[in-house]
Structure formats: C-alpha cells, structure tokens
Amino acid sequence: MLLLPWLYRPNIGIFALICITSQLTLFLFFKQTFWAEKFPYLYLFALNLLSLVQFWICQKKYTALRFIFIAWFAVISITGMIQFLSSENLPYLISAFFLGIIAFYYFFNKDDQLCASLMAAVLGVTATIWLVDGINQLFKDSNEFIFLLIAGIIFTWFALISYFLIKIFRQSRFYIIPLAIGAWLAGLALAAFTLVFWETISLIIGIIFVAVAITLLIKSQSYFIRQFAYCLFVSGQTAFLFHLGSETDQILWVLIAQIFILCISYFLKPHWFFILIQMLATYGIAVIYLLQMDHSLWSLNSTQTYLNLVLLNYLVFSSVLLIGSKAVVSYKRSTFLCTLVVILGSSFFDTFIGLALVDSADQSLWLLYALPCVWLLCFSFFYLYRQLHGITFFAFLVFGILLIALGYFEVFILFVILTWALKNKDRIVYGVTLVVFAFVLWQLYYSLQLSFLAKSASILVSGIILLALYGLLMKEAKINCIEGEK
C-alpha cells in the first residue's frame, strides 16, 4: 500500500522496492495461511516463478540490478541445496539449480562474461555442498583425512569450472572468479585438516604453508598458481594463529602475529580482497583482545571496554585520512570496505551500549567527542580546505561539528566514502556504502527517544540540510569550471 503513490514513477528504486515487498508478501502469505502445510512445494514453485519474472523485467529495463539478482539466486540455490540434503526431496534439488542454469544460459547468449562467470561460480558452490555431503557419507570412518580430500576435490572442481569458462569465452578474464572462490574454500578445508589431524604440529606446518605461499606470490604471475598460493596462505595462517592461541593462552600474541602477517601481505602486493580479509581479521582479533581485557569476554556494560572499542574504531577510521598517500593508493577499496564494516559494527554497539554510556556521569566520556573532532580537523586540513572555499568549506565543517554534537559522526565518514565512490565510479564501494548507510540510518531512527512526529520532523530537517549542502557543492563546481575555462 505504501508503494501505490509511487507507481506512476517507474524507476530503478521503485522497481527494487516492489521486488522486495512482493517477495516478502509471498513469504508471509504462505507462512500465515494453510497453503504452506497443505501444499509444501507450492511456495517453492511460486518463489522461483516470481524471481524469474522479476529477473526478466530487470534485464529488460533495469540491467544495473542484475548483480542483486545474481546474489538473490545464490541465496535460493544454496538454501535449496541445504534443504535437499536435509530432507532429500527432489523439488529442493530442482530449485537449487533451476534459476542458476537459466540465468547462466541467458548471460551466455548475451555474451555477458562477468555475470556468466558469477553464475557459474554460484552453481559451483551449490554443487560443492552436494559433493562435500557425499564425501562425508562415503568416508565416515576417515575423519582425519576427510578435510584433505575435500580440499583437493574443491580446488579441482572449481579449476574445471574455470577451464570450462575459458573454452566458451576465449578472450575472457573473468574465469579467475570460480578459481578464486575454489581456492578460498579449499584453503578453509585444508586449514581444518591441519587443525584436526596435526594438532600442535600445525604451528610449524602453518609457517611452512605461509612461506611456500609467499614464495609463489613473489615468483609467479599465473592466476592459477596465485590462487593456489592464497589457498596455502589462508590455511597456514588459520592453523598457525589457532594453535598459537591454544599454546600461549594469550590473545595478545595472536594479535601481534596477525599484525605481522598483515604487514607481510601488504608488501606482497596481492589482490585487494586478500588485503581486506587480513584487515578484517586483524580488527576482529583486536576486538576479542579488548573484550578479554575486562576479564569477561562479553562484559559489554563496562565503560572502559566501550571506550577501548571506540579507540580501536577510530584507529581504523584514521586509515581513511591516508587515501591520498602513495602507501595505500593500491588498496583504497580495501580501506574503505574495512571502514564500512567497522562502522556497521560500531553502529550495533552504539545502539545497544552507547546510549547508556552517554547518559552516565563518567568523566572519560569526553573522549567520544575529542576523537571525532581530531578526525574532522585532520580531514578538513588535508582535504576540505584544499578543495572547498569560503562558505562551502565552513558549511561542511559546521555539518561535521553538528554530527559530532549529536553523536552520529559515523554518518559524516559515510558521506566521505560515498563521495569517493561516486567520483571514482567504484560500484562495489558505492553499493556497500548505500547498504551500510540504510542500516545505520535505520538504527539511528529507531534509537531516537522521540515521538513519531518529532522523528518525521528530524528526517525533514536532515533532508533540507543535505539539499542545502548539495546546492553549495554545485555552486562550487560551477565556479571551479569557470576558473578552469579562463
């Protein structure tokens, strides 16, 4: 009903909302009526049919959403395979491959090599789940070596998928997508093998694996060899860190080792996704270490623990200030995506902990305002002051100060990342930023201790402020354009 007033404005946003609400309506209809019990597979049929119709409309009018539908088909495919393995009902098996095969065939006919490779990877992951379950059934008594067998089969299976893509797309460079996914999955299985079978010796084995991986990454430029090296690196790193923590019983040593591994990874100049994984692993281990410092892993009501987490978050946020330096120029995407994940986590902590801490009388809470002030000052000096002039500069500075006073400074950082993504046309960072933006604003809206009318007024005021900032930016752009012509 809320979408009805917008139906006369056909655009990509409204189509996306209609797709989401129609899927939700279909689910709730079967969930709240007798149809789900009386006809258990009818919902499965309706889900695939509705998704197929939406995909057809998307390809006709809104092709920019095709990656969203690939992700949605992946969810349906993997969920269908898991349900098939748990119940062994044929309709679930059909659902696991139906949409994926149709989408792959469509992209193949349109010569969309990227989307076809992504769908091939999705089908490969779905089939891998089936293969792993079959291996578990065949080798129930060989628990020690089953992970090694799974790792080998996974890597071989995805290598065959990549070989198939090379054959059908002669000049494609996207065949590495299934190979990369297979390398990561095989790496996890190999890491599990080192943890289960070699136990304490995994410390040494992990170091050997990482050393071999570093050698391969330095000397080889082959995509296949490099993905195999990533596989060895991940498995060796996981085994080494796990047993280092078990032997020392100190997360601090694990954190130091992970920071060292992150530094090594940077000098190897690997893919940006590999650096992102290492950054997130370092941040995750650091969070666990800070939580353990309070002598209780989940003692989240401690003011000191919360302040430690805030300090850690702003240490990550400070990496955004380094995007202009040559040191991180190759990994701007990794830096921004890591920052977005941290903002998402800090938004969660602020919703469930931050409000209670702000209301407390602890004198150390001045840090919550000092850190964003320092960040804003540095950003203004290094970037805003050089690019904006006069009233536009002061308007954005006041906007940042206002967000600091309200305790929502992460929103300003999101604006910075979104601006960079739009300027550099980075679709990955742009898409993830929009998702994080929506989640953060949703949490802020529902955490406001105000009436519905006051919340609506706050949204209106926010919109007016953003519109005014947009007008100032457009005026600044016109002035710069005129000066450039002169």
What would your notes on this structure say?
It is built from 19 helices and no strands. Residues 482-486 have low confidence and may be disordered. 28% of the residues are buried. α9 runs antiparallel to α10 (223-248), α12 (272-292) packs antiparallel against α13 and α17 runs antiparallel to α18. The protein is mainly α and 486 residues long. The chain has a domain at 1-110. Helix content is 80%, strand content 0%. InterPro entries: DUF4401 (IPR025513). It holds the Pfam family DUF4401. This is DUF4401 domain-containing protein. Keywords: Membrane, Transmembrane, Transmembrane helix. Residues 179-474 form the DUF4401 domain.
Task: Write a short abstract of this structure.
InterPro entries: DUF4401. The chain has 19 helices and no strands. The chain has 486 residues and is an all-alpha fold.
Would you spell out the secondary-structure blueprint of this structure?
Layout: H1 12-31, H2 35-38, H3 42-61, H4 66-87, H5 90-109, H6 113-138, H7 146-168, H8 176-198, H9 202-219, H10 223-248, H11 251-267, H12 272-292, H13 303-317, H14 332-358, H15 367-387, H16 390-406, H17 409-424, H18 427-447, H19 452-485
Helix pairs in contact: 1-3, 3-4, 3-5, 4-5, 4-6, 5-6, 6-7, 6-8, 7-8, 8-10, 9-10, 10-11, 11-12, 12-13, 12-14, 13-14, 13-15, 14-18, 15-16, 16-17, 16-19, 17-18
Keywords: Membrane, Transmembrane, Transmembrane helix
Transmembrane segments: 12-29, 41-58, 65-84, 90-108, 115-133, 145-166, 173-195, 201-218, 227-245, 251-268, 273-293, 305-324, 336-358, 364-385, 392-422, 428-445, 452-473
Pfam families: DUF4401
